[in-house]
Automatic annotation (TrEMBL):
Protein name (record): Type 11 methyltransferase
Any GO BP annotation: methylation
SUPFAM superfamilies: S-adenosyl-L-methionine-dependent methyltransferases
A GO term, aspect molecular function: methyltransferase activity
Record bears the keyword Lyase: no
Length: 244
């Protein structure tokens, strides 16, 4: 596939906005350093609560207080908490077109914002759904990532995040061990590529983190870590809490 490079790195947002504006002609295509190209159907990003997987439903059930939805995308989680649970929720994303879509869909508080530069504001719940923990990119960055998120939490606040253990994607030896390439420090680290309508973004760092590794990182950074729900395909929902 000969895709043209995308300069502004917002293909994801462009696809979301196209769908919102009725210009849906094709789906996003994603590829990683360990998986072949696959379609990401745009209607899935606009799903309602009943169409969400149990892990996301559980996260929305246990969210409380003032909420920050990090990497909100099309705003589906935000809209449920805002409209169905009447919570005060702020949606942020690096994608300007995603935020434009959120506003068109009726999200009250949506902003183009990097969570790592967010300061002087605190929340009771921080949502990192659809593998939101992966946005820190590499395992060596997770300490700084969690440390910053801690500054955004009210006392007794919680971080709700989901991810997956992708060890199953690697070949297994007869002794039960897995053959893992050595080009990354941690097997959950991948290079992620997005394509849309003949355009392609440069690969960016992404990460899937298994629960034990997350738990160790959380404890090392002053959090308690609780496994709330396990999915059907190596995925899980975790809650991180921090007491002042």
């Amino acid at each position: 596939m000969n895709a043209q490079p995308m300069e502004n790195n917002d293909l994801f947002g462009q696809a979301i906005l196209d769908y919102q504006l009725g210009n849906y002609t094709e789906d996003l295509k994603t590829e990683t350093s360990i998986s072949e190209e696959d379609d990401l159907p745009l209607p899935y990003l606009f799903r309602n609560y009943n169409e969400m997987p149990p892990i996301e439903q559980k996260a929305l059930q246990v969210a409380y207080g003032s909420v920050l939805d990090v990497g909100c995308g099309a705003g589906s989680h935000t809209l449920y908490l805002q409209n169905e649970r009447s919570l005060t929720i702020t949606a942020i994303d690096l994608s300007a077109k995603s935020i434009e879509t959120c506003k068109l869909r009726g999200v009250h508080h949506a902003f183009v914002q990097d969570v790592m530069t967010l300061k002087e504001v605190k929340f009771d719940t921080i949502l990192l759904l659809m593998n939101g923990a992966g946005m820190c990119g590499r395992l060596k960055k997770i300490a700084a990532f969690l440390s910053h998120l801690k500054t955004l939490l009210n006392p007794g606040g919680q971080i709700l995040l989901d991810s997956s253990d992708i060890i199953y994607m690697f070949d297994e030896d007869e002794d039960g061990s897995h053959w893992i390439p050595t080009d990354h420090d941690y097997y959950g680290e991948v290079d992620y590529i997005v394509r849309y309508k003949g355009m392609e973004e440069p690969a960016f760092d992404w990460m899937y983190i298994d629960y034990n590794t997350l738990q160790n990182a959380a404890i090392a950074n002053g959090f308690e870590c609780e496994l709330l729900l396990e999915g059907e395909h190596y995925d899980y929902l975790a809650r991180l809490t921090h007491q002042e």
